[in-house]
Amino acid sequence: MTSAAFTPSFRGLIIIPAHNEAANLPAVIADLRQHRPDLEILVVDDGSADGTAAVLEQLNVRWLRWVERRGVGAAIRAGLRYAMRSRFTAVVRVDADGQHDARDIDRLLAPIADGSAEVVLGSRYGATSEARAGTVGAAQRMLAAFISLVTRNSVTDPTCGFCALGSRAIRLLAEHHPDGYPEPELHLFLSRNAVALTEVPVRARGRLSGRTSLTPARVVAASARVLLALLIVPVRPAVESLHD
Amino acid sequence: MTDRVQIAALAASILLLLLVLELVRRRHLAEEYSTLWILSALGLMAVSWRRDLLDTAARWLGVYYPPAVLLLVVILIVFTASLSFSVILSRHQRQIDRLIEETAVMSAELRELRSEREPRASNSPLQLRR
DSSP for A110-154? Predict the structure, then answer.
């Protein structure tokens, strides 16, 4: 493990939003503990009904919970509120399905540690020129092009959830992290509020077990929402509470 | 419009106004949300009282049957009301969201404080690192 030389005041928290991921959580958390034992882990149980609660008791992690599913955006917002109140200075968001590789966390945290960025977004397509095949790939490329155009930033992977946040971003997003299918909207929001962000390449893996929660109906709904966000978020007033 | 219709319309709008005021009096309707309904009742009262207003509006709009304008006004009121309900609903949704998140964070903080104070009595084996 080679972690960047952090200042003594550095306190890092890994936030894992989870909905019915009891089967994957133990392996994901073991992987994280092996690579970054210095980081605390917070699982946000988003209304799971598969025994995730019991698994969390066994895993000796911090957790938040509510009874009905509210979505990944709400889970992250709550996790960031927790991080802010417990005075964590950096947060890494990791998915509960095992798609994110704990070895990439060092790379995600480095720009935050050296102060060059407030938000670091993982990109599965940044380093490799690996072609994204099929309709989903084409849609993702188009979305990436649109978001790059709107934010005047080079965005290669607007739907990747693997990211790291510094303390200013934690404060901002604890209140304003978007709902729904939040990753593309998060890019637009951060750009609108002039938050310094950068992309780093991360490894892409499949889910450990279980199935993705994306159904065709959800994809259509999410696309409509993203289209609306593309039009609206850039012309929204910037959030004021930033300049403190 | 016959006089009978005019009287009925006037009575209905006065009843609406009284109903709204009574709901506010009993605190079944917040003052904040009563404005729209009071304005609507007053507007309906005005067009029932002065039917020439309705006739003028109908001529100006090119509508041959003046009572159709009344229908248009009512539809407009209902539309405005439901849009304002959506706005209110969105605000409440946001407030509830923040409340759920704050409660979840606070209950986690409480749980962690308890497990620090009485590690054996607690269900959670969490030992916080400092």
Answer: HHHHTTS-SEEEEESSSSS-----HHHHHHHHHHHHHHHHHHTS-
